[in-house]
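<instruction>
Derive structure tokens from the sequence

<record> Sequence and structure tokens follow
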Amino acid sequence: MSLTGLAVASAFGRGTAPLLSAVLSGRPAFGPVTRFDVGARRVTVAATMADSPGLCDELIGAVDEACTDAGLTAPQRRDCPLLLAVHGDAAIGRAPAQERAGHTGAALATTVADKCGLGPQRRAYTSACVAASTAVADAAAMIRHGRAERVVVAAGYLVEPDQFALFDAGRALAADGAVRPFSAGRTGLLLGDGIAAVVLSSAASAAGTRIRCGIAGWARTSDGYHVVQPSPEGTGMARAAGTALDRAGVAADELDYVNAHGSGTAQSDAAEAAALRSALGAAAGRVPVSSTKSVHGQALEASSLLELIVTTLAMQAGQLPVNAGFLAPDEDCPLNLVLSPAKANLRYALSINAAFGGANTALVLEAA
């Protein structure tokens, strides 16, 4: 199936051009948080938009734009399911008990679908950093098995005080204000805004439309190693990557790029590097790898869809996103990192993600 429409907003602004320019040059968006009070926090920076009308309105705008980008008519929209990856409205924790149901992910999915004229089938995905990629995998399976001709997948996260406080209290945020995936001296992740939407279409329904890229393979695994720590060997992620490549019929040595999860934390990056070595074998030392979280930040439920769009745009541009923030090699992460702007002919790319609880996803993209 094919990706036929997309829309994105990030700390760089709305639209694909500012985001693509930043990831290809390795220019991070991190700066002081002004959206809420961080005076009592250990870390006080994130990648946030200058202004935003709020999560629900941002999602409605992105879904409408992606549908328009795909050329969907009103009747075609009414046949589209919406799969929405979102933590929920940040106001839920402070809302009166009787109003909380209106702030859930399911409620957001209903509102967005109704406002954008989509079909009655709506799902909410809340599985943290693999929420959106899980939704993409489900959408691909729905289309593959003939249960839908087109599916809209959307995702959103705007940096808010509760999650910020949790990550800060857990000392997961980068104390030096920079995300340094796979680098010696990395100190953690930084949160970032992300709003994204895509339209996935069957081969028949995509005929005659502009195709951004193909979704050639997908996979999900769970290693169940620990609640918040990855398996040091990266077993589950390696299995996800291998399964997705097998489903796509793509050999490891045919890969041209990996958009890595690359959170910038010590344990996660080392485990991911081990997973890539296991899944790709000898090709792991050749395939270019970068984590664009080093530029746009960790957008939680929206991260994997943001990264799918970034990878798609990079394939179209024929350039590799930069792994920003790098200081020096880490012997636990012997990967072929993209450390400066570079052109490349990208036919196949792999986008991988992981989440708390041992969840892993992998998506294989094919150039249009």
Q: What stands out?
A: The radius of gyration is 19 Å.
